[in-house]
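Journal club side-thread
Mid-discussion, someone asked how the predicted structure for our own chain would compare to the paper's figures. Pasting it here so we can look after the session.
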Amino acid sequence: MPKPYSECIENLEDIDSEYYRKVIRSNLTYRQLDCFDAYISDEIYKKCGCELLLSNLIVEKKPCNTYQKQLCGSDLFKEIIESNYKSKIRSLCPLECESVRYKISKSENKYPSESYAKELLETNMIKNLFSNRSNVSFEELSSNILAVNVYYEYPEQTEITQSAIIRWDGLVASIGGTLGLFLGIMFNFLNSLTEAYLRKKSKNFQISNFLYFNIYHTD
């Protein structure tokens, strides 16, 4: 939930930050973590004159393509990570209220299998790739083609909705009720204290009159 219940920003278009714009230019959905990476990338460029490949951000300027520049960028990256840079630029990279994250895992296998290679060699696409040659070996085929499959671990989406337990009017009423309760207790305590004081004073006055009366009649 947005302010005042959390620090997240609901309307991302209100963000006026070059780091935010770099994330958007990279064709990414805004995330605070990517915005932090954009800041680090900008700082590395200022000092080292090149950009490191960070996260999924596009390299808009000269990349760090030499050993010296990569070393410069790596050292500065470590220095920034160990500093308190996040609190410094939090206003420029605010937290998003909605975020999407994927747990990524990678596995590799030999492709294709020998039996599937025979089937592939019969397809027009593979024939055109090898100029209709008929003597394509399995090793040549496997070294020239690649298959990439992307799977989602769970084909479902979990949405968590937060709602305010108490709103401003209820909060004010609750505070007012609590103050009224404590004021009532305080006035009751003061009333009891005053009553006890008056009773004690009245009792002392009666004792004084009694002693005076006895002394007067004795004389």
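Post-session note: The chain has a mean pLDDT of 79.
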